[in-house]
Amino acid sequence: MTTTVLLVDDQALLRSAFRVLVDSEPDMTVVGEAADGDAAVRLLAERPCDVVLMDIRMPGTDGIAATRAITADPTLAAVRVVILTTFEQDDYVVEALRAGACGFLGKSAGPDELLTAIRVAAAGEALLSPSATRGLIERFLAGDGPGPSPAAAAGVETLTAREREVLLEVARGRSNDEIASRLHVSPLTVKTHMNRLLAKLAARDRAQLVMTAYESGLVRPGRAG
């Protein structure tokens, strides 16, 4: 199967470079380009794709607003948004994750990293290492970010003791196999718990589960362990 990709960036030269790279792969193809978030949303309404490579800072509708519009549209539920940013330690990235992006990638990433990110996102997995996302969230919440969210805390209260254990391990940046080993269960059991966590916490993916773990106060910055 071919993974379809939409490129969203206000720099035409950068879009061209990404297009050449993506189209060089036999299992993926660029199906459209947009110079701002509004154009991206319009294109997706006409032809949904698998993965959107979304710049954050653009004139007009920025990447955060566009991501929020995409993830709020039930007809685009299968679309995965990967945030591209010049500065990986950018507070805007946290807002993009809250808006429903599946993860982020620095524009300084190498070609292989970009292609891997597209494949990982298309497969519905957490983008890049969970610990990278965790580190970004931890830095944000340890600084000027908001305090614990009552809504997130209420969601965590609905979890079973085992589901909380799994959520804690997710927030610590551990993979499903690592969680299975630590909790002495099978990877299939961990996957089942993950599916329940996603449903109960209304999260799209692993990145949002990490956000919820921190925002609920279940995990505190500096104490992910």
TrEMBL record:
PROSITE patterns: HTH_LUXR_1, HTH_LUXR_2, RESPONSE_REGULATORY. Residues 4-122 form the Response regulatory domain. Residues 152-217 form the HTH luxR-type domain. The modification 4-aspartylphosphate is found at D55. Keywords: DNA-binding, Phosphoprotein, Transcription, Transcription regulation. This is Response regulator transcription factor. The lineage of its organism: Bacteria, Bacillati, Actinomycetota, Actinomycetes, Kitasatosporales.
